[in-house]
Amino acid sequence: MSAANLAARAQENTSSADFRRRLRERQQLVTRALDEHFPPGSGPLAAAIREALLADGKRLRPILCLEACAWVGGSVKAALPAACAIEMIHKMTLVHDDLPAMDDAETRNGRPALHKQHGEALAILAGDALLVHAFGLLASTRGVPAERVTVAITRLCQALGTTGLAGGQALDVLSQAEGVTPEKLDHVHTWKTASLFEAALVIGAEVGGAGVSQVSALARYGMLLGRAFQISDDLLDAQDEKGKAEGEVTNYVQLHGVEGARIKLRELLNQAVSALTSVEGGDIQLLAGITELVWERSWTAGEGHHGNDA
Ligand code: IPE
Ligand code: IPE
Ligand code: MG
Ligand code: MG
């Protein structure tokens, strides 16, 4: 089946009750597991961390991690610590991204940004603690060969370092001052956003016992989906009538226009789905459906798009 046909089928899929139920189940599984870390009443730092982790979130990256594990025939339960670790890291990136020295954002998902509620010092430290706890949690993965856990940890380090998230955020901040070019912005999207998507899938695959070709297919899907996701986010930001503190930022839409952004988004999503059809794996429904959610998301300005809906 062609990528376009697959995408058309996935589109029907996203409105099906079965797809929505499976997505919500995974979302709830992750949120419940996260709720067990940093118990309430453990002091102001833990309170700030709980707020960052539990106030909202689509849980997209952990869902992808769990689904990659399931797709290669692994047990979702084994991947739950890894999935929670990835969400902790994601939330750390958002807390730090909103800080005055970065995007200086007032709000996140319609609520005051973490530093607005708990102060900058606790926001920085909440991010630090989330990062460290995440690696501890990933390292504590049980029922999986130790060398696979080591590969997972290594892949996560690569996704977050100078040629991953931190490098992407640095390039984002610096290129806004120096002038953004299309090449630079693609680079920023790949590093700051797609690298964590890719890692989520690769780690889920490793925990699930994937073969080499399955890992590379999922990595490719994750990279393409992550780049698409950031374009969908830029489209949402461009439609945000109220604007944000970071409204001055040059994003994909300023450089390529709304039409150009949508064309690229569709192309990346189709490529993501076809990456999965090249190798043997399980049920593609959820992974293909998620690409369509990203597509639908880019059209949902003014409908609470920054909330919990995946
Ligand atoms: C927001 O990510 C940051 C980007 C990479 C654009 P999400 O929209 O996945 O964040 P939450 O966790 O669901 O709020
Ligand atoms: C995404 O960048 C944030 C990270 C990858 C950490 P943006 O700055 O574009 O995202 P939002 O709009 O604040 O969520
Ligand atoms: Mg930013
Ligand atoms: Mg930001």
Total strands: the figure is 2
Query: How many DSSP H or I helices?
Result: 13
Give the distance, in angstroms, between the N- and C-terminal Cα atoms: 26 Å
Q: Report strand order across the widest sheet.
A: 1-2
**Biggest sheet layout:** 2 strands, antiparallel
What helical percentage do the residues reach?
A: over 70%
> Which stretches of 5+ consecutive residues score pLDDT under 50?
none
The H/E string reads HHHHHEEHHHHHHHH
- The proportion of strand residues reads under 5%
Broad structural category:
mainly alpha
Mean pLDDT: 91
Query: Which of globular, elongated, flat, extended, rod-shaped describes the shape?
Result: globular
Briefly say what this structure is:
This protein has 310 residues and is mainly α. 72% of the residues lie in helices and 1% in strands.
What does this structure look like?
With 310 residues, the chain is an all-alpha fold. It has helices at residues 3-14, 17-35, 44-54, 60-71, 76-98, 114-118, 120-139, 146-160, 165-178, 182-207, 212-239, 252-277, 285-297; strands at 107-108, 111-112. The protein has a two-stranded antiparallel ribbon with strand order 1-2. Helix 10 crosses helix 11.
